[in-house]
Amino acid sequence: MISLAPPVDSWLYPVGSGIYCEPGDFYIDPGRVVDRAVITHGHSDHARAGHRAVLATSETIEIMKVRYGEDCAGVFQPLAIGETIDINGVRVRLVPAGHILGSAQVVIEWAGRRAVISGDYKRASDPTCAPFELVTCDVFVTEATFALPVFRHEKARHEADKLLSSLRAEPDRTHLIGAYNLGKCQRMIRVVRDAGYDKPIYLHGAVVALTELYQKLGVDLGELLPVAGTDPKSMRGGIVMCPPSALGDRWSRRFGDPVNAFASGWMRVRGRARQLGVELPLVVSDHVDWPELIQTVIETEAQEIWVTHGREDALVHYLGTLGRKARALALVGYGEEAE
Protein backbone atom coordinates (compact mmCIF):
# COMPACT_ATOMS: atom_id res chain seq x y z
CA MET A 1 0.00 0.00 0.00
CA ILE A 2 1.29 3.46 -0.91
CA SER A 3 1.51 5.80 2.08
CA LEU A 4 -0.48 9.03 1.75
CA ALA A 5 1.42 10.70 4.61
CA PRO A 6 3.18 13.90 3.51
CA PRO A 7 6.98 13.66 3.23
CA VAL A 8 8.82 14.93 6.28
CA ASP A 9 10.58 17.69 4.35
CA SER A 10 7.21 19.24 3.53
CA TRP A 11 6.67 20.16 7.19
CA LEU A 12 10.15 19.99 8.76
CA TYR A 13 12.91 21.90 7.02
CA PRO A 14 16.01 24.09 7.48
CA VAL A 15 15.55 27.84 7.59
CA GLY A 16 19.02 29.38 7.44
CA SER A 17 20.17 28.86 10.99
CA GLY A 18 17.88 26.21 12.41
CA ILE A 19 15.24 23.57 11.69
CA TYR A 20 11.61 24.64 11.60
CA CYS A 21 8.59 22.45 12.31
CA GLU A 22 5.78 24.16 10.43
CA PRO A 23 2.67 22.46 11.92
CA GLY A 24 4.08 22.91 15.44
CA ASP A 25 5.38 26.40 14.69
CA PHE A 26 8.65 25.91 16.60
CA TYR A 27 12.36 25.80 15.82
CA ILE A 28 15.02 23.33 16.93
CA ASP A 29 18.31 24.95 18.00
CA PRO A 30 17.69 28.21 16.09
CA GLY A 31 20.61 30.54 15.57
CA ARG A 32 18.46 33.64 15.76
CA VAL A 33 15.89 34.79 18.29
CA VAL A 34 12.48 33.13 17.74
CA ASP A 35 9.16 32.88 19.55
CA ARG A 36 9.40 29.16 20.33
CA ALA A 37 12.60 27.14 20.46
CA VAL A 38 13.34 23.54 21.37
CA ILE A 39 16.96 23.30 22.54
CA THR A 40 18.92 20.04 22.38
CA HIS A 41 21.73 21.02 24.78
CA GLY A 42 23.62 23.90 26.36
CA HIS A 43 26.52 24.53 23.96
CA SER A 44 26.28 28.01 22.47
CA ASP A 45 26.03 26.90 18.86
CA HIS A 46 22.74 25.22 19.84
CA ALA A 47 21.49 27.22 22.83
CA ARG A 48 21.29 30.97 22.39
CA ALA A 49 19.77 33.63 24.60
CA GLY A 50 16.76 35.79 23.83
CA HIS A 51 14.08 33.34 22.68
CA ARG A 52 10.55 34.15 23.79
CA ALA A 53 9.98 30.56 24.96
CA VAL A 54 12.39 27.64 25.38
CA LEU A 55 11.57 23.94 25.73
CA ALA A 56 14.45 21.76 26.95
CA THR A 57 15.50 19.35 29.67
CA SER A 58 15.73 20.87 33.14
CA GLU A 59 19.53 20.43 33.10
CA THR A 60 19.87 22.32 29.83
CA ILE A 61 17.73 25.13 31.21
CA GLU A 62 19.96 25.40 34.28
CA ILE A 63 23.05 25.45 32.06
CA MET A 64 21.57 28.25 29.96
CA LYS A 65 20.82 30.27 33.08
CA VAL A 66 24.41 29.93 34.31
CA ARG A 67 25.83 30.89 30.92
CA TYR A 68 23.44 33.66 29.94
CA GLY A 69 21.63 34.75 33.08
CA GLU A 70 18.35 33.85 34.77
CA ASP A 71 16.31 35.94 32.32
CA CYS A 72 17.94 34.69 29.11
CA ALA A 73 14.57 33.51 27.77
CA GLY A 74 11.04 34.81 28.18
CA VAL A 75 9.66 31.49 29.41
CA PHE A 76 11.39 28.20 30.18
CA GLN A 77 9.43 24.97 29.88
CA PRO A 78 11.27 21.91 31.18
CA LEU A 79 10.42 18.59 29.58
CA ALA A 80 11.44 15.38 31.30
CA ILE A 81 13.29 12.75 29.30
CA GLY A 82 10.77 10.34 27.77
CA GLU A 83 7.75 12.57 28.42
CA THR A 84 5.62 13.36 25.35
CA ILE A 85 3.80 16.64 24.82
CA ASP A 86 1.49 17.88 22.09
CA ILE A 87 2.35 21.13 20.30
CA ASN A 88 -0.39 22.11 17.84
CA GLY A 89 -1.02 18.45 17.08
CA VAL A 90 2.68 17.55 16.82
CA ARG A 91 3.97 14.97 19.30
CA VAL A 92 7.34 15.95 20.78
CA ARG A 93 9.55 14.09 23.23
CA LEU A 94 13.17 14.24 24.33
CA VAL A 95 15.46 11.22 24.60
CA PRO A 96 19.10 11.16 25.79
CA ALA A 97 21.82 12.13 23.32
CA GLY A 98 24.79 11.14 25.52
CA HIS A 99 26.67 14.33 24.57
CA ILE A 100 26.78 16.33 27.83
CA LEU A 101 24.62 16.69 30.94
CA GLY A 102 21.02 17.36 29.87
CA SER A 103 21.64 16.78 26.17
CA ALA A 104 18.70 15.36 24.27
CA GLN A 105 17.52 14.27 20.87
CA VAL A 106 14.22 15.78 19.73
CA VAL A 107 11.72 13.17 18.51
CA ILE A 108 8.95 14.72 16.40
CA GLU A 109 5.91 12.80 15.16
CA TRP A 110 3.28 14.19 12.83
CA ALA A 111 1.00 12.80 10.12
CA GLY A 112 2.31 9.27 10.54
CA ARG A 113 5.98 10.23 10.18
CA ARG A 114 8.77 10.40 12.75
CA ALA A 115 11.87 12.57 12.62
CA VAL A 116 14.74 12.57 15.11
CA ILE A 117 16.96 15.63 15.43
CA SER A 118 19.92 14.28 17.35
CA GLY A 119 21.78 17.54 18.02
CA ASP A 120 25.31 16.55 19.09
CA TYR A 121 25.61 13.01 20.41
CA LYS A 122 28.00 10.25 21.36
CA ARG A 123 27.64 6.57 22.15
CA ALA A 124 30.72 6.15 24.32
CA SER A 125 30.29 5.75 28.08
CA ASP A 126 30.12 8.99 30.05
CA PRO A 127 29.42 8.93 33.81
CA THR A 128 28.33 12.59 33.79
CA CYS A 129 25.26 12.23 31.54
CA ALA A 130 22.56 9.81 30.46
CA PRO A 131 23.61 7.39 27.67
CA PHE A 132 22.49 7.79 24.06
CA GLU A 133 19.13 6.21 23.28
CA LEU A 134 18.52 4.92 19.76
CA VAL A 135 15.15 5.76 18.20
CA THR A 136 14.11 4.35 14.84
CA CYS A 137 12.65 6.94 12.50
CA ASP A 138 11.84 8.03 8.96
CA VAL A 139 14.30 10.94 8.98
CA PHE A 140 17.44 11.15 11.13
CA VAL A 141 19.28 14.46 11.48
CA THR A 142 22.88 13.81 12.40
CA GLU A 143 25.98 15.86 13.12
CA ALA A 144 29.15 15.24 11.12
CA THR A 145 31.85 16.73 13.37
CA PHE A 146 34.19 13.74 12.98
CA ALA A 147 32.75 12.28 9.79
CA LEU A 148 35.97 10.96 8.29
CA PRO A 149 37.34 7.39 8.62
CA VAL A 150 40.51 8.66 10.33
CA PHE A 151 38.53 9.63 13.42
CA ARG A 152 38.35 6.76 15.86
CA HIS A 153 38.21 7.96 19.43
CA GLU A 154 39.97 6.22 22.30
CA LYS A 155 38.11 5.02 25.36
CA ALA A 156 38.14 7.82 27.93
CA ARG A 157 39.46 5.47 30.62
CA HIS A 158 42.45 4.60 28.43
CA GLU A 159 43.30 8.29 28.11
CA ALA A 160 42.81 8.85 31.85
CA ASP A 161 45.28 6.04 32.54
CA LYS A 162 47.71 7.73 30.14
CA LEU A 163 47.34 10.96 32.10
CA LEU A 164 47.95 9.22 35.44
CA SER A 165 51.03 7.50 34.02
CA SER A 166 52.37 10.90 33.01
CA LEU A 167 51.74 12.21 36.53
CA ARG A 168 53.78 9.35 37.97
CA ALA A 169 56.58 9.90 35.44
CA GLU A 170 56.65 13.69 35.94
CA PRO A 171 55.89 14.17 39.67
CA ASP A 172 57.42 17.67 39.80
CA ARG A 173 55.39 19.12 36.92
CA THR A 174 51.84 20.44 37.07
CA HIS A 175 49.58 18.88 34.46
CA LEU A 176 47.35 21.46 32.77
CA ILE A 177 44.39 19.75 31.11
CA GLY A 178 42.82 21.87 28.40
CA ALA A 179 39.18 20.84 28.14
CA TYR A 180 36.09 22.68 27.01
CA ASN A 181 34.36 24.16 30.05
CA LEU A 182 30.96 22.57 29.46
CA GLY A 183 30.85 18.78 29.35
CA LYS A 184 34.43 17.84 28.54
CA CYS A 185 35.95 19.37 31.69
CA GLN A 186 33.49 17.64 34.02
CA ARG A 187 33.72 14.34 32.16
CA MET A 188 37.51 14.33 32.39
CA ILE A 189 37.38 15.01 36.12
CA ARG A 190 34.95 12.14 36.68
CA VAL A 191 36.88 9.70 34.47
CA VAL A 192 40.15 10.53 36.26
CA ARG A 193 38.39 9.95 39.58
CA ASP A 194 37.13 6.58 38.37
CA ALA A 195 40.70 5.72 37.34
CA GLY A 196 41.78 6.14 40.96
CA TYR A 197 42.89 9.76 41.31
CA ASP A 198 41.67 11.01 44.69
CA LYS A 199 43.74 14.17 45.21
CA PRO A 200 42.28 17.68 44.87
CA ILE A 201 41.83 18.87 41.28
CA TYR A 202 42.35 22.57 40.65
CA LEU A 203 40.07 24.72 38.48
CA HIS A 204 40.79 27.71 36.29
CA GLY A 205 38.25 30.44 36.99
CA ALA A 206 36.55 29.96 33.61
CA VAL A 207 35.49 26.39 34.43
CA VAL A 208 34.30 26.94 38.00
CA ALA A 209 30.66 27.98 37.50
CA LEU A 210 29.62 25.11 35.24
CA THR A 211 31.59 22.56 37.26
CA GLU A 212 29.79 23.73 40.39
CA LEU A 213 26.49 23.38 38.52
CA TYR A 214 27.31 19.77 37.62
CA GLN A 215 27.92 19.10 41.30
CA LYS A 216 24.69 20.85 42.26
CA LEU A 217 22.83 18.64 39.77
CA GLY A 218 24.21 15.48 41.36
CA VAL A 219 27.44 14.69 39.50
CA ASP A 220 30.09 13.70 42.06
CA LEU A 221 33.45 15.20 41.05
CA GLY A 222 35.38 14.85 44.28
CA GLU A 223 37.43 17.60 45.94
CA LEU A 224 37.88 20.65 43.71
CA LEU A 225 39.84 23.80 44.51
CA PRO A 226 40.25 27.11 42.67
CA VAL A 227 43.59 28.02 41.14
CA ALA A 228 42.98 31.62 42.17
CA GLY A 229 44.60 32.29 45.52
CA THR A 230 46.54 29.01 45.55
CA ASP A 231 50.35 28.92 45.59
CA PRO A 232 51.43 27.40 42.23
CA LYS A 233 54.12 25.39 44.02
CA SER A 234 51.43 23.50 45.94
CA MET A 235 49.95 22.32 42.63
CA ARG A 236 53.13 20.64 41.37
CA GLY A 237 52.48 17.05 40.47
CA GLY A 238 48.76 17.75 40.39
CA ILE A 239 45.99 18.31 37.86
CA VAL A 240 44.65 21.70 36.80
CA MET A 241 41.58 21.89 34.56
CA CYS A 242 41.49 24.91 32.26
CA PRO A 243 40.08 26.10 28.93
CA PRO A 244 42.23 25.05 25.95
CA SER A 245 42.99 28.72 25.23
CA ALA A 246 44.72 29.02 28.61
CA LEU A 247 47.40 26.48 27.74
CA GLY A 248 49.48 28.98 25.79
CA ASP A 249 48.68 32.29 27.47
CA ARG A 250 50.30 34.22 30.31
CA TRP A 251 48.14 32.47 32.90
CA SER A 252 49.98 29.16 32.35
CA ARG A 253 53.41 30.66 33.06
CA ARG A 254 52.80 30.66 36.80
CA PHE A 255 53.26 26.88 36.77
CA GLY A 256 56.86 27.01 35.56
CA ASP A 257 57.30 24.03 33.26
CA PRO A 258 53.85 22.39 33.12
CA VAL A 259 52.78 19.42 31.04
CA ASN A 260 50.29 20.79 28.55
CA ALA A 261 47.53 18.28 27.81
CA PHE A 262 44.45 18.73 25.63
CA ALA A 263 41.38 16.47 25.76
CA SER A 264 39.70 16.53 22.36
CA GLY A 265 38.75 14.32 19.45
CA TRP A 266 40.95 16.57 17.31
CA MET A 267 44.00 15.21 19.15
CA ARG A 268 43.76 12.21 16.84
CA VAL A 269 45.45 14.52 14.30
CA ARG A 270 49.08 14.64 15.42
CA GLY A 271 49.82 17.72 13.36
CA ARG A 272 47.16 19.67 15.20
CA ALA A 273 48.58 18.63 18.58
CA ARG A 274 52.07 19.75 17.53
CA GLN A 275 50.73 23.02 16.15
CA LEU A 276 49.06 23.79 19.48
CA GLY A 277 52.13 22.85 21.51
CA VAL A 278 50.36 19.96 23.23
CA GLU A 279 52.78 17.61 24.99
CA LEU A 280 50.14 15.12 26.12
CA PRO A 281 47.29 14.73 23.60
CA LEU A 282 44.23 12.98 25.07
CA VAL A 283 41.88 11.65 22.40
CA VAL A 284 38.60 12.12 24.24
CA SER A 285 35.55 13.42 22.41
CA ASP A 286 31.95 14.15 23.29
CA HIS A 287 30.88 13.35 19.71
CA VAL A 288 30.51 10.08 17.83
CA ASP A 289 33.52 8.94 15.87
CA TRP A 290 33.30 7.56 12.33
CA PRO A 291 32.38 3.93 13.16
CA GLU A 292 29.78 5.02 15.74
CA LEU A 293 28.26 7.53 13.33
CA ILE A 294 27.79 4.97 10.56
CA GLN A 295 26.50 2.39 13.06
CA THR A 296 23.93 4.87 14.36
CA VAL A 297 22.69 5.88 10.92
CA ILE A 298 22.15 2.24 9.99
CA GLU A 299 20.45 1.32 13.26
CA THR A 300 17.93 4.15 13.05
CA GLU A 301 16.54 2.51 9.87
CA ALA A 302 15.88 6.03 8.60
CA GLN A 303 14.83 6.38 4.98
CA GLU A 304 16.53 9.76 4.81
CA ILE A 305 19.60 11.14 6.58
CA TRP A 306 20.02 14.89 6.97
CA VAL A 307 23.56 15.97 7.82
CA THR A 308 24.65 19.13 9.59
CA HIS A 309 27.68 20.92 11.07
CA GLY A 310 30.89 19.19 10.19
CA ARG A 311 32.08 17.05 7.30
CA GLU A 312 28.66 17.18 5.68
CA ASP A 313 29.65 16.52 2.06
CA ALA A 314 31.98 13.65 2.96
CA LEU A 315 29.30 11.88 4.98
CA VAL A 316 26.59 12.46 2.38
CA HIS A 317 28.86 10.97 -0.29
CA TYR A 318 29.69 7.92 1.80
CA LEU A 319 26.07 7.26 2.71
CA GLY A 320 25.26 7.40 -0.99
CA THR A 321 27.68 4.52 -1.58
CA LEU A 322 25.65 2.55 0.97
CA GLY A 323 22.46 3.26 -0.95
CA ARG A 324 21.19 5.72 1.65
CA LYS A 325 19.35 8.90 0.71
CA ALA A 326 21.26 11.74 2.36
CA ARG A 327 21.45 15.52 2.11
CA ALA A 328 23.51 18.30 3.69
CA LEU A 329 21.45 20.95 5.46
CA ALA A 330 24.23 23.58 5.45
CA LEU A 331 22.85 25.36 8.51
CA VAL A 332 24.45 28.71 9.28
CA GLY A 333 26.42 29.16 12.50
CA TYR A 334 26.74 25.53 13.56
CA GLY A 335 29.96 24.02 14.80
CA GLU A 336 31.27 22.80 18.14
CA GLU A 337 32.54 25.67 20.23
CA ALA A 338 35.86 24.09 21.22
CA GLU A 339 35.67 20.29 20.93
UniProtKB/TrEMBL annotation:
It comes from the Bacteria. Residues 14-180 form the Metallo-beta-lactamase domain. It holds the Pfam family Lactamase_B. GO terms for molecular function: RNA endonuclease activity. NCBIfam families: Xnuc_lig_assoc. PANTHER family: BLL1145 PROTEIN, CLEAVAGE AND POLYADENYLATION SPECIFICITY FACTOR FAMILY MEMBER. This is Putative mRNA 3-end processing factor. It comes from Hyphomicrobium facile.
